[in-house]
Amino acid sequence: MATRLSPRVGALTCRPSSGGSHNVAGPMRLIVARCTVDYTGRLTAHLPEALRLLMIKADGSVLVHADAGGYKPLNWMTPPTVIEESEELIVVRKLKGDDKLEIRLAEVVSDSTHDMESDPGLEKDGVEAHLQEALAAAPGWCGEGFRLVRREWPTDIGPVDLMCRDDDDGWIAVEIKRIGTIDAVEQLTRYLERIRRDPALGECRGILAAQVVKPQARVLAESRGIGWVEVDLAVLRGEREPALTLFA
Hints:
Number of strands: 13
Number of helices: 4
CATH topology of the largest domain: Trna Endonuclease, Chain: A, domain 1
Oligomer: single chain
Strand order of the largest sheet: 1-6-7-8-2-3-4-5
Mean pLDDT: 83
Helix content: 10-25%
Distance between the termini: 74 Å
Largest sheet: 8 strands, antiparallel
Shape: elongated
Structural class: alpha+beta
Radius of gyration: 22 Å
């Protein structure tokens, strides 16, 4: 029989710092609870009562997970947020906007906090790192007339690999992968959404560069106006001549 634990009562607010990152408001909190979840905002969604994992991160992110469904949460809220708690209710609000997540607790099985060490971030595998280095030195492989502005162009959800400009001074965000997949297209789509919030970069285009771009990724990229290019690291390094293509 599960023991009911008393949830914390109060409010936790995570506000963005001037540098664009978020201040750490506390440790990671993991709650296993039987609960219902209601989201209101741009749309409405309801999760009926069930046993779920609630993850409250120090940056204000809140994720609701089930035991099925893979790595994706059932519902979530991204920072900056305000988190308000009473004995049986956790309310998560966007700091700006009307988005709201209401989590009503019927039974708490476990409620624990964990101090997480500073994370060094994702390191690209050797091929991706070498591809980025080679394409930064020769961005014309990504598109005619491309010139590099900066590697690791920052956004508030992570850096895009290369930011370039073309002959018309248009902006191009280039994401580099060993293998271009649907997930890579989704990642670049998220970067472009954040980049285009700056009016000066509102027309920024996207290019997915990879040694191999999967057919499904090509279709998705083209449907979203994202270009793609396949590049050979050995050719970029001058270790092999480019393959000749005959056009009828």
